[in-house]
Write a structure and sequence with these properties.
The complex is a heterodimer. Chain A is α/β, with parallel strands linked by helices. Chain A has helices at residues 4-14, 30-46, 63-74, 88-97, 110-117, 142-145, 174-188, 205-217, 229-238, 248-256, 280-290, 364-370, 409-417, 451-459; strands at 19-23, 26-29, 54-58, 78-81, 102-106, 123-128, 154-160, 168-173, 195-198, 220-223, 243-246, 270-273, 294-300, 304-308, 323-324, 328-333, 346-352, 371-372, 375-384, 390-395, 400-402, 405-407, 422-431, 437-445, 470-473. The mean pLDDT of chain A is 92. Chain B is mainly alpha-helical. Chain B has 3 helices and no strands. Chain B has helices spanning 3-13, 39-53, 70-80. Classes of the chains: A alpha/beta, B mainly alpha. Chain A binds chain B through residues 227-230, 249, 253, 256-260, 402-403, 432, 450-452, 455, 459, 464-465, 467, 469-470, and chain B through 17-18, 29, 31-34, 37-41, 43-44, 47-48, 50-51, 54-60.
């Protein structure tokens, strides 16, 4: 097994002049990317960032995000990608919990980052926009040769959402990520000729898995900071993009987008949908408009890519997340950990070389609960048909899935309870008539309060996708005789 | 139907399903109802407006001011028709 650094160096040596990353028309070859990575690695090294240190990457999809990740991997440091949509208090949690020595960010977010680290020893470095003190030639890169990295060393911390009130830290090693890239690329058959458009945040485990796979195979990646429908369609057409990882809501919006003239997306050979279930309606309407069916992928922060639907009969199996990718074993277990047979519904369990081997940091009980006998118990309920296609039919966990962003109801409840006029709060997921999940809050007020007060309060504290769309005020919450809140009655 | 009435209809059918239509007038502050708070919901509203008026709207042109009231949305739509 090799390290992420070796994976990256191998792509540079194999495809030096090929385009590695494109952002707003700016093309960076693998060789140029390598120089940028060396320069930033050297800057880190000379500024005291060493092997085993953690560094938060608070950046949108950009050349700098890519450079930052590989530069940290180059010196054996650990990346902690954080979604730029998060608010100050949320970012603070990731910075503190990962014991980050440094926060890498862009000029636009510098003041937020400075507020986050205020009163701590953590430093902030702006590497996108503003001054680029690291991006200079002539930096000493000899020091990099002295860093010995083992494939078993940690390279990234991803955070998994559950219903524990706070995200859980999952560590992945160089070996895990290289295995992920091997499994995924060998299954989907990508080549160095592929062009992959990333508008899903690279800080998200789904996009990250596709990103590391793209670099491994020498494909060109196109990065976009925000999802803009018309820009996405223009890039897909003008750049002849071949692979487009998306979340269902993006596909739905693209399928409904008014076009003054038709788009030629005939170069697209794979449109991936993940993060949330893809409705049949969106599956068909996307095809009707663009002539290609989206294919569902299944993965997790704990394991990386689990499966993808590359079946020939995509219409007949459109609700399936496909078969396991290479070197990944998927089984269905009942509550007694007994393996179930064809089409029997139980919990989906996964075994893979790309999955974390250490579980959740600082949470031995939670780790013991879901990592058993070499398997990861996903908390998703599903079945496997006789052709080996996996169907997800529900979940055991309590989180709410907002367009691929997982929301922990307890975290939102805790935020609401900090409002002095909120006596009690219950947060739950409801499904709207489009089949999409929404965050709903049921609040027992303590005095006069309106929906707009709650919305305004949440806006400054939690990421927008976590803010309850539906807010209901009640005099009291329905409870069982033992005092437990009857959540189902609140839906 | 006027542009304002059609905008109100789109809002009631999409972003404000739980709101009593009688509660909304042209000057009601939509942010108080959560409109414009969430980029995905905003995008869904923009797409629904495109569908209703058969026009192309660039989401980059949609500012918090555009989404302030039914009147401000209608003004933006009228410019594009």
């Amino acid at each position: 097994m090799i390290t992420v650094r070796e994976l990256f160096l191998s792509s540079i040596s194999e495809f030096p002049d090929s385009v590695a990353v494109v952002e707003e028309g700016q093309k960076v070859s693998f060789k140029e990317l390598g120089s940028k990575v060396d320069a930033l690695s050297s800057y880190f090294y000379s500024n005291g960032i060493k092997k085993g240190d953690t560094v938060v990457i608070l950046l949108p999809n950009s050349v700098e995000f890519v450079v930052a990740f590989f530069a940290l991997a180059n010196i054996g440091a650990i990346s902690v990608p954080v979604n730029t949509a998060y608010k100050k208090e949320e970012i603070k949690y990731y910075v503190n919990h990962s014991l980050a020595k440094l926060v890498l960010t862009e000029e636009k977010l510098e003041s937020v980052a400075q507020e986050v680290v205020s009163g701590t020893d953590t430093l902030v470095a702006v590497i996108k926009g503003g001054s680029s003190e690291w991006d200079t030639e002539g930096l000493d890169t000899k020091c990099l040769q002295e860093v010995l990295i083992d494939p078993g060393d940690e390279v990234i911390y991803l955070y998994s959402t559950g219903s524990t009130g706070k995200p859980k830290r999952v560590s992945r090693t160089h070996h895990n990520l290289v295995a992920l890239a091997d499994n995924h690329t060998q299954t989907v058959g990508w080549t160095e000729k592929d062009k992959v458009l990333f508008t899903v945040p690279l800080s998200h485990t789904y996009a990250f898995g596709n990103f590391i796979s793209s670099v491994k195979i020498g494909a060109s990646i196109f990065v976009m900071g925000d999802f803009n429908r018309n820009l996405v369609l223009n890039i897909l057409e003008a750049e002849s993009i071949t692979v487009f990882p998306a979340v269902p809501v993006m596909l739905d919006v693209l399928a409904k987008t008014y076009l003054s003239e038709p788009k030629d997306l005939s170069s697209l050979k794979l449109v991936i949908s993940a993060g949330a279930p893809l409705s049949e309606k969106t599956f068909h309407s996307f095809y009707d408009k663009y002539g290609i069916y989206p294919r569902q992928l299944y993965g997790s922060s704990e394991t990386g890519v689990i499966s993808i639907n590359l079946g020939e009969d995509i219409v007949g199996t459109c609700n399936s997340v496909g078969r396991p990718v290479k070197n990944v074993v998927v089984k269905i277990f009942d509550e007694h950990r007994k393996e179930l047979g064809t089409d029997e519904v139980g919990e989906i369990v996964v075994k893979s070389l790309s999955m974390t081997t250490t579980g959740y940091f600082g949470l031995p009980e939670e780790t013991k609960e879901v990592f058993k006998d070499g398997y990861y118990f996903t908390g998703d309920l599903g079945r496997i048909d006789q052709e080996g296609f996996i169907y997800i039919v529900g979940r055991k966990k309590l989180f709410i899935n907002i367009s691929g962003n997982k929301v922990d109801p307890v975290e939102v409840e805790n935020a609401l309870l900090e409002h002095k006029k909120v006596k009690e709060a219950v947060v739950l997921g409801i499904v709207d008539d489009q089949g999409l999940e929404r965050v709903k809050a049921v609040i027992v007020p303590d005095g006069q309060i309106q929906k707009k007060d709650i919305l305004e309060y949440c806006r400054d504290r939690i990421a927008e996708f976590k803010i309850p769309r539906d807010i209901e005020f009640r005099d009291e919450l329905p409870r069982s005789p033992t005092g437990k809140v009857l959540r189902e009655e609140l839906k | 139907m006027t542009v304002e009435e059609r905008v109100k209809k789109v809002l009631i059918e999409n972003a404000l399903k739980d709101v009593d239509p009688k509660e909304l007038n042209q000057e009601s502050l939509l942010l108080d109802y959560g409109v414009g708070l969430d980029s995905v919901a905003t995008l869904e509203l923009v797409v629904a407006l495109e569908e209703e008026f058969k026009i192309r709207i660039d989401e980059n042109d949609i500012t918090p001011e555009t989404l302030e009231t039914i009147e401000s949305i209608s003004r933006h739509i009228t410019q594009l028709i």
